[in-house]
Amino acid sequence: MRQTFPFALLPLLLAISGGISAAENGLKLAWDKNWLTISGDNIPEIRVLYLEAYCRPGSTDREWKETTIGHKTTLLEASPDGKSLKLRCEVNDGITVEHTIAAGNDEVDFKLTAHNPTDKTSDAHWAQPCIQLYKFTNADKLTYVSKCFIFVGGKLTRMPFEPWAMKARYIPGQVWCPKNIPRDDVNPRPLSSIVPSNGLIGAFSADEKKILATAWEPYQELFQGVACCVHSDFRIGGLKPGETKQLRGKIYIVDVQPEVLLKRYEKDFPEHAAK
């Protein structure tokens, strides 16, 4: 029996095909000289200082140079399609941190393994991926603040908002610390009295059509910074001799649907909801 092509279904088939193609393309990654670059068809290029620093505890009121622990990051692998990277950080106190980074359609996934092969306890308690937003917000280090947000009382709250801390060893900037982290162990910028209701921090795009948001488990602090940046700084908590810890993070670049973003975050980081 002769079969004919179902031309009536052609628009649907093309739409499905196009959707798959778009999903396969999605975001792409590159890394060079401590800069992680995230690109995609519908977003401006995003640069992340990855990583800015590994840090000791006791940092809230101390000279920054006394807090940071030097490190060197090496690119181990980069897939030809720009979808995945593997990096290794060698921290000056002897620990190593392996990074597996993967790009999806609208997110970047981070999986880290921190290991201490030495016979001494590591003082590396937290580290800083610095997400810079100049192109994403089309703003500068002063004007971008109104694009940024955290969640307060369960609601997306745009900055600046009251109370806004103004005093610290270094200004400007703003730090939000979760309940379980000592207030002596965060960035030496103004520390807010507000405890964020979750671990998300982010910003709206220049045209207000996209949201960039980031979260880590575990995390040390949320930080609105100095270089048109936002941070969710991940927590290591020190490493005993021979100890290994697993960490994970996300960068979301999604449509402006805060409730959808929140549900997705809660699914990805159920520990934060439990806390």
How does this model look, in words?
By secondary structure, this protein is mainly beta. The protein has a single domain, classed as Distorted Sandwich (Beta-galactosidase, Chain A, domain 5), CATH 2.70.98. The chain is 15% helix and 42% strand. The protein is built from five helices and 17 strands. It has helices at 10-25, 64-67, 134-137, 258-268, 270-274, and strands at 28-32, 35-40, 43-55, 68-69, 71-78, 84-91, 96-103, 107-115, 126-132, 148-152, 155-158, 174-176, 201-204, 210-217, 219-224, 229-235, 244-255. Strands 5-6-7-8-17-14-13-10-11 form a nine-stranded antiparallel β-sheet, with helices on one face. Strands 1, 2, 3, 4, 9, 12, 15 and 16 form an eight-stranded antiparallel β-sheet that branches. The radius of gyration is 20 Å and the shape is globular. The N and C termini lie far apart (64 Å). The model is unreliable at 1-23 (pLDDT under 50).
Summed up:
The protein has 275 residues and is mainly beta.
Strand order of the largest sheet: 5-6-7-8-17-14-13-10-11
Average pLDDT number: 92
CATH topology: Beta-galactosidase, Chain A, domain 5
Q: Helix and strand string, N-terminal first?
A: HEEEHEEEEEEHEEEEEEEEHH
Morphology: globular
Q: Return the structural class.
A: mainly beta
Query: What distance separates the N and C termini?
Result: 64 Å
Instruction: Quickly count the domains.
Output: 1
